Amino acid sequence: MKTDDAPAIVRLAGELDVYRKDEVRTALQSALQARSVLLDLAGVTYADSTALVELLHFCTDLKDANVPVALLIAAPQFARLIQYAGLDQVFAVFDDRAAALEYLAART
Amino acid sequence: MSRPKELRVRRKAWPKSASLLRHALDAFLASNKIDADTRIDIITAVGEALANSIEHAYSPNRVGDVELRARISDVEPRIAVDNIDGGRFITRARRPLRGFGFRIIKMAARTMHIDTSGGTAIRLEFDSAQA
Question: Which residue has the higher pLDDT, A67 or B90?
Fold first, then answer.
């Protein structure tokens, strides 16, 4: 993969809740100009809807710009939150990093 | 029938309190052998209620408390958690449990009741097998 085709990687870890809403927003904004984005959230142990809203805004903005985004998620709570919010068909969610990168490479 | 186990924990409704309250609840559930799958649903639903209290119960210059009261008994629904704040439920338009938070709670909890007679109390109930 050429360097300029490599996805931007945004890595967040720990608990993404109401306390970290602004931090999540700022981290996501750093990748708004990318050609493709891997949101590496494998280290996230808990998330709530305040983080989910930030992720949804980010993914919607990039989708409108035809920029592919993949979410790498490991915690069962986070995966269930996305499912309960009805967003499992909106986000491209992966629990395997190679599969997420393959998804992005096929769309870049 | 054994005596119900209870937890009460109260903190200022600041954003940083959410994690502390969730961890206190999860430790209580784990110490009473509530299975991991049910704990995920409880922490997810209660986390939404807490976030709602922290974001909407008080004006920024007059922040009050938010309290969790959890009770585990022998009969279903075995687990009840009250999320209580002193916020005034002025109108549903201004103080809703709407959108994703509302949807997530309805998916994760067996029942939800909102009492606005004094502050706002959200009671969530869950079934559980013991681990």
Answer: A67
